[in-house]
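input
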Amino acid sequence: MVSLIRSSFAAVSHRSDELTQLFYGWLFRIAPETRDLFPVTMELQRTRLLRALVHVVQMVDRPDELTTFLRQLGRDHRKFGVVSEHYDKVGEALVGALRETAGTAVWTRDIEDAWVGAYGIVSQAMQEAADAERGPAVWMARVMEHRRISQDLAVVRVQTSQPVPYLAGQYVSVETPQRPRMWRSMSPANAPGPDCVLEFHVRTVPGGWVSRAIVSHARVGDVWRIGPPMGQMTLDPRGRSDLLMVAGGTGLAPARALIEQLVVEGTDRKVALFVGARTWPDLYDIDSLRRSAQENPWLTVVPVVEDDGRPYGAETGTLGEVVARYGAWADREITVSGSPPMVRATVSALLDAGTPFLNIHYDPYHTD
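output
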């Protein structure tokens, strides 16, 4: 089943836009009531569907990690008002879209049976998690601070009336009043605390409807909705290995949360943080990071810029190139966070350098 799923998905991956458009065409035709669950513009939603599909295909032979991801996804989908009947329609639409995209030259009965069987496992895990969940489907949060760092970057702090049960390194989905039904995945930049405050670092991205609205139009007093926490880029409480964190742009947020957790708990684990951007001014939090390194001898901060970094004491190159120059990091647990292209390039560079794949942890959602 694993082989059939991966080979058939590889055969259609170059037609990803067509695949996702066909999927939603199928879904809205056979279950028209589901259209109201989605925003008016579907561009962002199509991107997220593809990213989730790719993530599932990558983990299909890693059942423990896949089950954790699917259970989180099932709990998260409660915020949409998804009911059991919708899962069957989604499965029908997914297989129909894959069959239509692949064509008769690729698609076989064995491939269809593999996808139907795999989707049955996926939907069962999601539904069981959703049915077992007794916590809120969403948390209401009020914006208490909106600080514009630059034209395209803002730091936003929100406070919920009850704790969101996230772990440092995880991400949540956010809906703002400026963009109803358009959920954006963001990682809190702070570890959980008793004040129920979550800090988000938001940069506008091309085509980023939600990120532009947050940076330019979010105001103190706005009420956001926060979805359930997701992601596996967390610290194993039993772990004792030293750590390597690689963060690009606002992918710094989950790394900051993990470092804050280590500071609070006290640690003897060495942590190397490589934080990268295109230019030196884009390293918006470098002064604070360097102070943290001075205060905590176990933390080493290595700034990386694609421009010439020598005038600033920074490394020059992409994050993947620079991190791989230092070797394989085979003795470290590694987290990688940032835009999907940056994560893919960095993971590829680490693997080429000899890093064991099981040492590398990343999540599929970081940007619009």
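quick obs: The mean pLDDT is 90.
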